[in-house]
Amino acid sequence: MGPMNGSAFSLAPVPGPAPAPPAALAGKRVRVETMGCRVNRHDAAQLGAALSAMGCLLAEAGAPFDIYLLNTCTVTHQADAEARRRARRARRRCPRARVVLTGCYAEVSPQALLAMPEVDLVVGNHGKADLAARIGALFEPAVGPAPGPAGRSAGGGSVSGAVTRALPDQGGDTRFFLKVQEGCDVACAFCIIPAARGRGRSMPPDDVVDVLIRAHAAGYREAVLAGIHLGGYGEGLGTHLAALVRRVLDETPMPRIRFGSIEPWGLSDAFVELFAAHERLLPFLHVPLQSGSASVLKRMRRPCTPEFYRRRVGRIVAAKPGLTLGADVLTGFPGETAAEFAEGLEFIESLPFSQLHVFPYSRRAGTPAADLPDPVDEAVKRDRVRRLIALSDARRRAALAAQVGTVSHVLVEARGRGHTHNNHPIRLLADPPPPRGRVVAVMVTGVDGDDLLGALAAP
Prior knowledge:
The protein has helices at 22-25, 38-53, 77-93, 104-108, 110-114, 131-139, 193-197, 205-217, 241-251, 269-277, 294-299, 306-319, 338-349, 378-403, and strands at residues 29-34, 57-58, 67-72, 98-103, 121-124, 153-155, 176-182, 201-202, 222-227, 256-259, 284-286, 324-331, 355-360, 407-412, 417-419, 425-428, 439-448, 451-456. By secondary structure, the protein is an alpha/beta fold. The protein folds into 3 domains: 22-155, Cobalamin-binding domain (Rossmann fold); 176-402, tm_1862 like domain (pyruvate-formate lyase- activating enzyme, Alpha-Beta Horseshoe), CATH 3.80.30; 407-456, no CATH class. 46% of the residues are buried.
């Protein structure tokens, strides 16, 4: 496999600084945490695997640690604030530990994080390939980069998106998360992620197949294919998402396959036909909407209209019985009037969503929307968020109630919990519960809060 270019990322090792010698990190306890999307979960698993390979011991939640590594998100100001809060909490919990921040917030605002006295090292997405070596430098400075302000370090590097050949520890997950696509070229007006993640590029199909075959051999029975712009998979490689899915179905034994978020324009006819025809492709999709108002979508520079969204989603809902449908919705975008909000709310109510991820608009410096006039009053924004969350809660309750009396095949996770094939959380009423990682038939018997309850069904 060749070196990185603008359209692909490789499984080959990434050139860069030599790894820290075992003495630097051997026996060090590292707590790896992640925020945000499925792509971040994949990246965090890769980083944990790299540190384990250098002799670190992965610390469980609540255990003491020598290194705290946080993979940050920067979708909103709230995400930024949460990252800073976690860094301070880590310093209070283990005062002598090294606190390291990476991810999207670290990429777009490294100096803000370096200004925190609690933080020892900041490395953006573009420097993740040699992050483990940089952490080693904190314990053995001769190994790594020159220190930054106040004796601390800020890391950079070229965009790589590379992953290692070793299967990463999935942090206790029974699902195997695999980032097959990185970056985005769409440039919605509100979104900072293209600056944080770079241009779109994809893992070559041969590599995806190879990793999934080895993941199955290692005991995984469900894979989640993720990407920043998953529907754009294959651009620049002469292929597309449906072709990759066909190869995964034909060439790997992985019995259960889920997908990360797919934009509506990524739901091609070929993808819909495959998704409808194969039970191995589990009936859950998250299709970002952002707004149901045509005029707001236009100002957002989203390359679709509400009616385009309705047609795409309507077709796939009709083709896949039992599909659970989720969406991202952003409210309070600059200039969003009461009439536009009402138009969007009516549109959302007209579609069969089972859950919504609701976000208030958060101004991100460097995005086109940052300079738009007519900001929405914060109190108005909070009220709109409240109304959308109320709708989402009602839809989620109705979706859970509709599952009672059905049988689902559940991948058992920790402590007898799991998710139904259409992605509803469920607690198994079995003592002892089935072993983690096993797929079992479950009769849904009731609802308890946000969880389904289920009993093992006859095979």
